[in-house]
Write a structure and sequence with these properties.
Largest sheet: 8 strands, parallel, barrel
Number of domains: 3
Strand order of the largest sheet: 1-2-3-12-13-14-15-16
Oligomer: single chain
Low-confidence stretches: none
CATH architecture of the largest domain: Alpha-Beta Barrel
Length: 473
């Protein structure tokens, strides 16, 4: 069976209680999911392994590479608990934050993070409960802080908090994360997503642990990460714009511009970028999204993202399959809008000083000039397909490879469809095979042509140096 997509933007969907069995996962795949996310903030290793096994079984059933991303929880900053479960807040009231684990009240509460207490200067702010409560630090002392309420009406047990503008001396990978990474790699996931990235050293630590066993995606959710963005993009394999925490820690009016900036930089680097968080959040409870949510997905597509992500919508919502179908429809509709192509073509990344990049850039230009139906890349590591995706072509990019890991890696990249070949030994044979495949997949019809790139010596990583136009017979 062939799973065909009529869009270039990819869909990443989170699995959870609402989508844990094979029937729902298969429906999600057929509805449009290209990559599945396992959220290690919830569930056991056994739960995740069961879902991974289902995905791999479906991959074999459909002969369709499917990528799996394991998302690490990272450090979770939370206040303690209250005697009554919550307290009422009024503007100007003061609360002591300390390390005492005794149940709190209107005068004090435990903040079980000495690294926070010891690094918060006077006049800095703490945002609690996703920014619903704002507190300014008015006094610091040994093992305590005094905060004054700026806004907010209540605060309940174990609410999370954010500290904008302060780089905390906290390891991005917690002991739980290290255990989860080991388990995820043992399962055979394709991507590890790293949370709470603040500086390049955080990314280097994850890279050393993961090695070449999976690809590393960094989640941009801290303002400090924006200061080191270029360096961290170089260190990672992909980037996720985690707008939940990021949207709390920077002014909300800045988020759209930051989203565009990150997408542009990651695209220029030839790496996949994902826009995530609250895209169709109302569909957790409702069968249709709001107009604002539909516009949010559309904006990410207009921005040129590689992928858009669903979180609770598919993991715990009432309408997981419907959420994917609507996201699929939005992406397809925007990509066929008359304004979309001029936006994609307005800015093409500069060609790098090497023959593989020059050949791939030329393939995009040739495909446009001759109105080719498809760009085909034969690649060992996926680098050629990534370069092709960076150009945001108007036609599909067919990635032919002998490595299943590479095929899955490409699932996240704009417009790339992967096929695993194990029976080709030279360029001419690969061209013939490519013509058969694009015809079968209905990417091209008899009489149309395709543009193909590969390297000689054949199958050697980084050797892309051939470009050919082939006619479909």
């Amino acid at each position: 069976m062939i799973i065909k997509r009529n869009r270039q933007t990819k869909i990443l969907a989170t699995l959870g209680p609402a989508s844990g069995d094979i029937e729902v996962i298969e429906k999600l795949l057929r509805a449009g999911v290209d990559i599945f996310r396992l959220n290690f903030s919830h569930g056991s290793h056994e739960d995740h392994k069961k879902r991974l096994d289902i995905i791999r079984a479906l991959e074999e059933k459909y002969n369709h590479p499917i990528a799996i991303l394991a998302d690490m929880q990272g450090p979770k900053l939370r206040v303690g608990r209250f005697k009554e479960g919550q307290i009422k807040l009024t503007e100007g009231m003061k609360i002591r934050l300390d390390l005492d684990e005794t149940l709190g009240d209107e005068t004090r509460v435990c903040l079980p993070h000495p690294e926070v207490i010891n690094n918060m200067p006077v006049d800095s702010e703490i945002l609690l409960d996703d920014g619903k409560v704002r507190m300014k630090i008015v006094e610091t002392g040994k093992e305590y802080l005094i905060g004054e309420i700026i806004s907010g009406s209540k605060l309940s047990d174990n609410k999370g908090f954010n500290i904008p503008g302060v780089i905390l001396p906290i390891e991005a990978l917690t002991p739980k994360d290290l255990r989860d990474i080991d388990a995820a790699l043992e399962m055979g996931v394709d991507w590890i997503a790293q949370s709470f990235v603040q500086k390049p050293e955080d990314v280097k630590q994850a890279r050393e642990i993961i090695g070449n066993r999976a690809h590393l995606m960094i989640k941009i959710e801290k303002p400090s990460a924006l200061e080191y963005l270029d360096e961290m993009i170089d260190l990672a394999d992909g980037v996720m714009i985690a707008r939940g925490d990021l949207g709390v820690e920077i002014p909300p009016e800045n988020v759209p511009a930051v989203q565009k900036k990150i997408i542009r930089k990651v695209r220029a680097a030839g790496k996949p970028v994902v826009v995530a968080t609250q895209m169709l959040e109302s569909m957790i409870e409702n069968a249709r999204p709001t107009r604002a949510e539909a516009s949010d997905v559309a904006t990410a597509v207009y921005d040129g993202t590689d992928a858009v992500m669903l979180s609770a919508e598919t993991a715990a919502g009432k309408y997981p399959v419907e959420s994917v179908k609507i996201m699929d429809n939005i992406c397809e509709k925007i990509e066929h809008d008359e304004l979309y192509r001029p936006i994609m073509d307005a800015e093409h990344p500069n060609t790098e000083d090497n023959s593989p990049d020059a050949i791939t850039t030329a393939a995009h230009q040739v495909a446009e000039d001759i109105n080719a139906s498809c760009i085909v890349t034969y690649t060992t590591t996926g680098g050629t397909a990534l370069r092709a995706a960076r150009q945001r072509p108007d036609v599909p990019v067919l990635c032919l490879t002998q490595d299943y890991k590479t095929a899955r890696y490409m699932c996240l990249s704009y417009g790339v469809r992967s096929i695993v070949l194990d029976d080709v030994t030279d360029f001419d044979q690969t061209v013939d095979k490519a013509c058969e495949i694009v015809k079968k997949l209905e990417f091209a019809k008899k009489g149309e042509n395709i543009v193909m790139t590969a390297g000689v010596p054949f199958g050697t990583p980084g050797s892309t140096n051939n470009l050919r136009i082939a006619w479909i017979n």
